[in-house]
Amino acid sequence: MDRDALRKTYRGYIDCLNARDWQRLDRFVGAAVRYNGAVIGLEGYRAMLRADVAAIPDLRFEIATLVADPPVVASRLLFDCTPVGMLFGLPVNGRHLHFEENVFYTFADGRIDDVRSIIDKAAIAAQL
Amino acid sequence: MDRDALRKTYRGYIDCLNARDWQRLDRFVGAAVRYNGAVIGLEGYRAMLRADVAAIPDLRFEIATLVADPPVVASRLLFDCTPVGMLFGLPVNGRHLHFEENVFYTFADGRIDDVRSIIDKAAIAAQL
């Protein structure tokens, strides 16, 4: 994929997440996807997203910066949400939060094959 | 700058940091640079790096992934180091640590103008 195609695919992936369209996730995420070094596979990825939405019913992914340099996409994601209970081991309990994630995705055969994500958990702790 | 020039400039910046060549930092960092939303300027940036090296005498920046999409560079940085005392409010006290930083740099006029960094502080806490 060239840079524009990669960008377009990534935006499609984010739209898929925001639509909670888990069945369509296989168009964007590879069968043997790795997340922060662990092979979790497509089913593990789907389960992770379902768990995220259970913890954060109003979860919405907003792209602040999108950088495409095939085969890698880097994205700054913003979250403005209301987790219902615990989040990352922190007792959020319905408080409204803003936080960010800086994340790199390596694509293979048109799908996300490797994810390296850091979420700013310290910013969350500081808001509690 | 095109993608290759941006990549080369960024590698020059990292070499400058690893050489502790603070006088040459103005070749890479703009006078009014912002760091995570705050204008700290070149002098503030230099002071931040000096403080980092005081806290981590063996600090070395290693690029794991470098993504260039003008005017933005995104980088995954790896650290393998031995902070002497406190680090990010955590009592490291000479323990050897591995941690990562996912960081975006927006360039203007050939220099870094805006930095958005997330360091994996939770990974550091987990190693203590």
Automatic annotation (TrEMBL), chains A, B:
Gene3D superfamilies: 3.10.450.50. Keywords: Plasmid. It comes from the Bacteria. InterPro entries: Cyclase_SnoaL-like, NTF2-like_dom_sf. GO terms for biological process: polyketide metabolic process. Pfam families: SnoaL. PANTHER family: ESTER CYCLASE, POLYKETIDE CYCLASE SNOAL-LIKE DOMAIN. This is Ester cyclase.
